[in-house]
Write a structure and sequence with these properties.
It is a single chain. It is elongated, with a radius of gyration of 27 Å. Helix 4 packs antiparallel against helix 5, helix 25 packs antiparallel against helix 26 and helix 26 packs antiparallel against helix 27. Among the domains are: 242 residues, Alpha Horseshoe (Serine Threonine Protein Phosphatase 5, Tetratricopeptide repeat), CATH 1.25.40; 107 residues, Serine Threonine Protein Phosphatase 5, Tetratricopeptide repeat (Alpha Horseshoe), CATH 1.25.40.10. It is an all-alpha fold. Helix content is 69%, strand content 0%.
Length: 543
């Protein structure tokens, strides 16, 4: 279950160019494959002219209190928001606090976007913000702050409308945001925070897909400028007071989706996590990028593990939600690494909690628990889990959990392959305990049942290495490499490294270098395998 990512509507419709004061809406999947590790240098940087330009600047009234309140929101300390807003307004306009109150509910929604439990509360808060800021612009039409917060109120709502697939309403709100913020900077060009929303409009209006551009034309909105838009967003981030944290969050989406710079996106999230360590969203987003964009299963697994530890130690806010989210993420990667027994432990911990958040987490955990039991050949336990998934699935069911569980109930897995998988895992666990005789018995039986399993071949090669049978071990690693099409990249990368070491020991330098080079560049291999291969290439003078 991908918890927080970005809106498919943003790609398909007008939401791609809408302005934002709140955060991007979320959906259930990332767009994979846009970038590779080490692309931090990609994407246009702000021009010297834009960065160097001096500006007198506009100090928003009561901005220090508003910044403290926004920090509480971004830290996910939602129980403290009301108190911070009461302290902020007085000195700040009450309308500003109305906008931040709606923004706080929006960030609560972001932590569990598939749930509709907060929809009514958000709608009431954002309508109040729109109503009060509209009244402010009417009585003080020459006040730039009135227009700034009025645009902010609509921008909080537009993200919600994108999330709930209200495309046309979202587009109309986008037009209102643009007009309000342009009015704000026309009245005071030094209102730095307002440039972020204007810059986002210009950026997305330029990069939007055709469907969004048609809608923009129908609404009589002007085109955009990608480069200038990014410059203005960075200007607001560097010079504004109120929007800095929000800007980093929005910019990480832009770097990831459109600038093909996953490294920069991760830097933004790292910066947010450093400033707001209590918000589990930034860690979960990092894990999702590592998985879906960089295809680094090992790194993503480590990040989910970090979030789990923080949740269990109460070092993040919303710890119960974060723990469930982390365990589901960990279980997914353990399955990828053919460690189904440990995945079952994580999923069992989830179902024992009977969590209400994140939405459908319980049903999804039951579904994946059933799949894990089936993989090990435990059909009775799998069937029970599938039935529980169907009962636990709510409505709406965006992950089609009921249909997927019903399909798995109708079709049992191949018993022979399941037994081979179970024996491979049993042999691997015995190998970890240095019980070599038991490991050999299990792995040999596994390969007799399914000799084409590259993971079992790799594990058997490790066993033979432990027995100092290097020639036979190399043969197993070569067979694992031959199954590259179905071998998980982290295991395949390690197989290349182990095979390269054995070739090197046997004096086959050229073959060893070739394997080390493959391991060093293998997409999806674990970082430690790639690093080991690079060190070996340096040692062999082949870097």
């Amino acid at each position: 279950m991908t918890r927080i990512s970005w809106p498919s509507a943003l790609v398909l419709c007008a939401a791609a160019w809408l302005l934002a004061f709140g955060s991007p809406a979320s959906t259930r999947s990332l767009r994979p494959g846009l970038s590779t590790p080490g692309d931090e240098s990609k994407g246009p940087a702000p021009s010297e002219r834009m960065v160097a330009r001096e500006s007198k600047g506009h100090e928003l009234r009561g901005v220090d209190g508003l910044v403290r309140a926004y920090d509480v929101i971004l830290e996910a300390r939602f129980d403290q928001v009301d108190a911070e807003l009461r302290r902020a307004c007085g000195p700040a306009p009450q309308e500003a606090c109305d906008v931040l109150a709606a923004t706080a509910v929006w960030w609560r929604i972001l932590l569990d976007p598939d749930s509709h439990m907060l929809d009514a509360e958000f709608s009431a808060a954002v309508e109040r913000a729109i109503r009060t800021t509209s009244a402010w612009t009417a009585r003080a039409p020459d006040d730039p702050e009135a227009w700034f917060y009025h645009g902010g109120a609509y921008a909080a709502r537009v993200q919600f409308r994108v999330l709930r697939n209200e495309k046309l309403s979202a587009a109309r709100d986008g037009k209102r945001i643009k007009e309000a913020l342009e009015r704000a900077v026309a009245l005071d060009p030094g209102l730095e925070d307002a440039y972020f929303g204007i810059g986002m409009y210009k950026y997305y209006a330029d990069v939007a897909p055709a469907a969004a551009k048609i809608l923009r034309f129908l609404l009589l909105l002007p085109g955009g400028d990608r480069k200038e838009g990014l410059e203005e967003m960075l200007r607001a981030r560097n010079r504004g007071r109120l929007m800095q944290g929000e800007a980093d969050y929005q910019l990480h989406v832009i770097y990831l989706w459109y600038e093909e710079a996953a490294g920069r996106a991760l830097q933004m999230l790292d910066s947010l996590h450093d400033r707001y360590p209590g918000n589990p969203l930034f860690v979960s987003q990092t894990a999702e990028i590592q998985d879906n964009y960089l295809h680094d299963t090992s790194a993503s697994l480590d990040t989910w593990g970090t979030l789990l530890a923080a949740a269990r130690e109460q070092r993040v806010n919303q710890p119960a939600l974060a723990e469930v989210q982390a365990r589901v993420g960990i279980a997914r990667h353990l399955e990828t690494l053919h460690q189904t027994d440990h995945a079952i432990e994580q999923l069992t911990a989830v179902v024992q909690r009977k969590p209400q958040q994140p939405y459908l987490a319980l049903a999804l955990a039951y579904l994946r628990l059933g799949e894990a039991y089936d993989r090990l050949g435990h059909r009775s336990a799998a069937t029970s889990a599938y039935h529980s998934a169907i009962v636990a699935a709510g409505s709406p069911d965006p992950y089609d959990i009921r249909a997927r569980a019903a399909e798995r109930l109708r079709h049992a897995p191949d018993a022979r392959r399941a037994e081979a998988y179970r024996l491979s895992l049993e042999g691997f666990r015995n190998l970890e305990q240095n019980a070599l005789h038991a490991a050999a018995a299990a792995l040999e039986r596994s390969l007799a049942l399914n000799g084409g399993d590259p993971v079992a071949r790799y594990r058997y090669g490790r066993l033979l290495e432990a027995r100092r049978a290097e020639i036979e071990a190399l043969a197993q690693f070569e067979l694992a490499i031959g199954g590259a099409a179905v071998c998980p990249p982290p295991i395949l990368g390690t197989a290349y490294v182990e095979a390269a070491r054995l070739h090197e020991r046997a004096g086959r330098r050229d073959r060893a270098i070739a394997y080390y080079r493959t391991a060093a560049s293998l997409f999806g291999a674990a970082a430690d395998s790639r690093a080991t291969a690079r060190r070996a290439l340096t040692r062999l003078g082949a870097a």
